[in-house]
């Protein structure tokens, strides 16, 4: 079975794509989604977060919401807001955080279906744990729509010939080309309908790509694979070629992706005075007071700390970390072991209410704001992990600590949808 396959996508007409394409379901809470698509009936948030069409305060996991999902999804198709391609195709989706800059960096992903069994057999590799409640929520969404409404964000080791093919396609005018008003990020989309080109891309992935890596969307991947397994078990005439054996992905070469920092803020100093805390941290780090100007970590094993109006450069002392361990080399691990656990008594990042996490897309000014407001006592900024570190962890079967990776830009939902039949 091929590692990727083309599919007959459901896509919006060009004149409404900018209004229909939405941010992912897990980027916005219900009220934010309600505000974001106010006055916009085309927004795919009506499908991915259908509670916005029910009374405020409706539980997003209630049966009424899932019924509304089906109603809205069918409406989008009935009104021609989503139209099915007549033949199986591959697609290319490009994104940029600075689309108006003449020297803007773009990342180009191939939109294709991945084989569900490859998730089970670990050809599709993960680096995060998933939660059963979140898996079940996404599984319900896939079951009731019988579709992968939102894609999963994958990476693969770059292949020169694949890059050449993508470049030949993207040299032409895209089908969709817009800048999202919410964040100013650019989105472009091409359709590959040349059958020989599609066949070559499928063959290249089979022969040149040993594995694919989940960058963002671990719960969507797990849900899609599990629903595929369910349908397999429910079908006495299963052949392995059914569309439910596959789920929709956007697969980017690893050398184009942008991983940004994922930072931490903590409510208290675990009963220590400022002086006692700094002394305790100094046992494991070389500390340098950088003054009141924001200081961003410049290299691996360097963090920055914001405390009582001052920024500190934190350089982990030799011997406090293990660069030969794919988990031990991570700055999130070093900070967790040497400060969060040892000094602040935070044992479980997933459950401890004293700690919160701030994506680097919000800037280090957000860390300063939350400490200065009195909401938090201390903040830590980290040097971002690399794609190599992510791949090393996935290849060795390890799992990253919680809240380690943050990818930007996020994939827009609604540019294409994959149905399971």
Q: How would you describe this structure in keywords?
A:
alpha+beta; nine-stranded mixed beta sheet; 13 helices; 421 residues; six-stranded antiparallel beta sheet; single chain; globular
The stretches of 5 or more residues where confidence is low (pLDDT under 50) are none
* Secondary structure tally, helices: 13
**Overall pLDDT score:** 95
Helix content: 25-40%
Which structural class fits the helix and strand makeup? Answer: alpha+beta
Provide the β-strand percentage band: 15-25%
Estimate the global geometry from the Cα principal axes.
globular
Ends distance: 18 Å
Q: What is the tally of beta strands? A: 21
Please outline the major beta sheet.
9 strands, mixed
Give the C-alpha Rg.
23 Å
How would you describe the overall organization of this protein?
- The chain is of the alpha+beta class and 421 residues long.
- It contains 13 helices and 21 strands.
- The chain has helices at residues 17-20, 30-36, 45-48, 63-78, 116-120, 132-145, 160-170, 195-208, 218-234, 274-281, 331-341, 364-372, 387-395, and strands at 4-5, 10-11, 83-84, 90-96, 107-115, 124-125, 147-148, 152-156, 176-179, 186-192, 212-216, 246-253, 259-260, 262-266, 285-291, 302-307, 310-316, 355-359, 378-381, 406-407, 418-419.
- Strands 1, 4, 5, 6, 8, 9, 10, 11 and 12 form a nine-stranded mixed β-sheet that branches. Strands 15-17-16-19-14-18 form a six-stranded antiparallel β-sheet, with helices on both faces.
- A hairpin with a 6-residue loop joins strand 9 and strand 10 (186-192).
- Helix 4 runs parallel beside helix 6 and helix 6 packs across helix 9.
- It is globular and about 70 Å long.
- The two termini are 18 Å apart.
- 41% of the residues are buried.
């Amino acid at each position: 079975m091929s590692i990727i396959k083309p599919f007959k996508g459901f896509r919006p007409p060009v004149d409404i794509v900018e209004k229909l394409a939405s941010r992912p379901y897990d980027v916005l809470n219900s009220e934010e989604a309600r505000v974001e698509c106010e006055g916009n009936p085309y927004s795919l948030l009506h499908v991915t977060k259908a509670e916005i069409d029910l009374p405020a305060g409706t539980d997003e996991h209630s049966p009424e919401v899932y019924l509304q999902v089906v109603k809205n999804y069918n409406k989008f198709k009935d009104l021609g807001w989503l139209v099915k391609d007549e033949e199986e195709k591959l697609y290319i989706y490009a994104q940029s955080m600075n689309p108006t800059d003449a020297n803007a960096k773009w990342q180009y992903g191939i939109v294709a279906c991945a084989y569900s069994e490859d998730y089970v057999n670990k050809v599709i590799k993960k680096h995060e744990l998933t939660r059963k409640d979140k898996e079940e929520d996404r599984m319900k969404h896939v079951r009731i729509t019988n579709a992968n409404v939102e894609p999963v964000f994958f990476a693969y080791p770059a292949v020169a010939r694949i890059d050449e093919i993508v470049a030949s396609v993207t040299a032409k005018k895209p089908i969709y080309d817009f800048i999202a008003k919410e964040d100013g990020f650019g989105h472009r989309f091409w359709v590959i309908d040349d059958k020989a080109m599609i066949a070559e891309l499928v063959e290249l992935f089979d022969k040149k790509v040993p594995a694919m890596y989940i960058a963002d969307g671990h719960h969507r991947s797990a849900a899609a694979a599990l629903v595929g397994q369910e349908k397999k078990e429910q079908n006495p005439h299963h052949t392995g070629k059914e569309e439910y054996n596959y789920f929709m992905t956007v697969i980017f070469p690893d050398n184009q992706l942008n991983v940004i920092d994922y930072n931490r803020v903590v409510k208290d100093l675990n009963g220590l005075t400022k002086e006692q805390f700094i002394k305790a941290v100094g046992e494991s780090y070389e500390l340098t007071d950088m003054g009141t100007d924001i200081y961003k970590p410049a290299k691996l094993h360097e963090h920055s700390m914001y405390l009582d109006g001052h920024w500190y450069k934190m350089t982990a002392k030799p011997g406090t970390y293990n660069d030969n361990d794919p988990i031990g080399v991570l700055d999130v691990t070093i900070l967790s072991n040497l400060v969060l656990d040892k000094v602040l008594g935070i044992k479980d990042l997933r459950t401890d209410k004293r700690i919160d996490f701030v994506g680097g897309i919000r800037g280090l000014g957000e860390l300063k704001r939350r400490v200065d407001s009195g909401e938090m006592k201390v903040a830590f900024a980290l040097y971002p992990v690399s794609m190599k570190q992510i791949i090393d962890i996935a290849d060795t079967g390890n799992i990253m600590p919680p809240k380690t990776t943050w990818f930007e830009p996020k994939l827009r939902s609604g540019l294409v949808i994959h149905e399971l039949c």
